[in-house]
Design brief:
Elements (H helix, E strand, L loop, with lengths): L3 E18 L5 E21 L4 E5 L11 H13 L4 E7 L10 H16 L6 H8 L8 H4 L2 E5 L4 E4 L8 E5 L6 H6 L36 H7 L1 H12 L4 E4 L6 E4 L3 H11 L4 E5 L6 H5 L1
Parallel strand pairs: 3-4
Antiparallel strand pairs: 1-2, 2-4, 2-5, 5-6, 7-9, 7-10, 8-9
Helix pairs in contact: 1-2, 6-7
Length: 292
C-alpha cells in the first residue's frame, strides 16, 4: 500500500459536565461524544527519508511540531521504532477553535493511517493509549461513533445505540480556547455525582425532546457571558424547531438536533450568509472501519 486518503470526522458533545479539578492540573469530566459527518480529509504517504512533511490548504493551520498531525506521526514513529518518514496533506473543512475536535481528529487519523501504512498492526487500545499523550479528546477518534467519556475524557465506553437525525452546526467565526474556558469555571469543590449512565441510552428515543432533558454543557454559562451572541444562536435554533440545542465542547460552535431534513434545511437557510453553517449526521468511523 503506497498511500491513503482518509476522512477525519468532527465531533459534538451532546452533554458535558465538569466535575472538578484534579491534582495533575486536568479536570474530571463526564461527556457524551458523538462523531459527525462534517470532516477534513488527510492524505498519507510513507517516504524513505526520516522526516515528516506536512502541508495544508488552510494557511491558518500551523505546521511543524506546532501541528498535532506532525506530532502524532513523530510520536508513533518514535515509539514503534520506524525509520521511514511520511508526507501528510490536510484538506481542512472543520473550523478551528470551534469545539468540534478537528485537531484531535486529525491527529488520531494520522495515527490510524500510519499504523496501517507502516504495517505496525497495533490494536486500537494501544493507539488510544499513545493518543492520550497528544490530548484528552484524541483517544475518542481512534474508534469514533457514540461514546461516554470520563476522567479527562479518555476513559471511553462505546454506546451501542445508533441514530440518524440531522444536526445543524452554526460556527459564528469566534475561536474559543479550551484553557480560557476552564479557567473561568467556578469549581469550588469536586462533584462526585455521576451524571451520565449507560442506562440513559437504553430504550430511549433520540427523536424525543425528553431524551435530552438531563443533558447540558457546563461551559455554556461562562462562554455565553463573554459571547452573548452564541446564546442568541442557541435560542434561535430552538425557535426554529430544534429538539435540542447546545454549545459543543467549550465552543464556539452551536448545534441543533432536528427531527427531519426539511426542518434542518430550513434552519440552515436562516443562518446562511450570517455565519458558517453545516448540516451533519451522526457517523461511526475509526479503527474497525479502516481495518475491515
Amino acid at each position: 500500500m503506497n498511500s491513503l486518503r482518509l476522512p477525519s470526522y468532527a465531533k459534538i458533545n451532546l452533554a458535558l459536565f465538569v466535575k472538578g479539578k484534579r491534582g495533575d492540573g486536568y479536570h474530571d469530566i463526564e461527556t457524551v461524544f458523538q462523531q459527525i459527518s462534517l470532516h477534513d480529509e488527510i492524505e498519507l504517504k510513507p517516504t524513505p527519508g526520516a522526516e515528516v512533511e506536512f502541508a495544508c490548504d488552510n494557511p491558518d493551520i500551523p505546521d511543524g511540531m506546532a501541528n498535532l498531525c506532525v506530532r502524532a506521526a513523530y510520536l508513533l514513529k518514535m515509539r514503534a521504532g520506524i525509520k521511514e518518514g511520511a508526507d501528510i496533506v490536510l484538506h481542512k473543512k472543520i473550523p478551528s477553535g470551534a469545539g468540534l475536535g478537528g485537531g484531535s481528529s486529525n491527529a488520531a487519523v494520522v495515527m490510524l493511517g500510519l499504523n496501517k501504512l507502516w504495517q505496525l498492526h497495533w490494536p486500537a487500545d494501544q493507539l488510544a493509549e499513545l493518543a492520550l499523550e497528544l490530548g484528552s479528546d484524541v483517544p475518542f477518534f481512534i474508534n469514533g461513533g457514540l461514546a461516554l467519556g470520563e476522567g479527562r475524557g479518555e476513559r471511553l465506553t462505546l454506546v451501542r445505540c445508533s441514530w440518524d437525525l440531522p444536526i445543524v452546526l452554526v460556527y459564528p467565526g469566534v475561536s474559543i480556547s479550551t484553557k480560557w474556558a476552564y479557567e473561568r469555571l467556578n469549581l469550588s469543590l469536586t462533584i462526585k455525582k455521576k451524571y451520565i449512565k449507560l442506562t440513559h441510552f437504553k430504550n430511549r428515543n433520540f427523536n424525543n425532546v425528553q431524551f435530552y432533558q438531563d443533558f447540558k454543557n457546563d461551559f455554556q454559562k461562562v462562554v455565553f457571558e463573554t459571547h452573548p451572541g452564541l446564546n442568541h444562536i442557541k435560542t434561535e435554533l430552538s425557535e426554529l424547531g430544534a429538539i435540542y440545542a447546545s454549545l459543543s465542547g467549550s465552543g464556539s460552535s452551536i448545534f441543533g438536533v432536528f427531527s427531519d431534513e426539511d426542518a434542518a434545511n430550513a434552519a440552515k437557510k436562516v443562518f446562511t450568509g450570517r455565519y458558517e453553517v453545516f448540516i451533519a449526521q451522526p457517523v461511526k468511523w475509526g479503527y474497525e472501519q479502516l481495518n475491515n
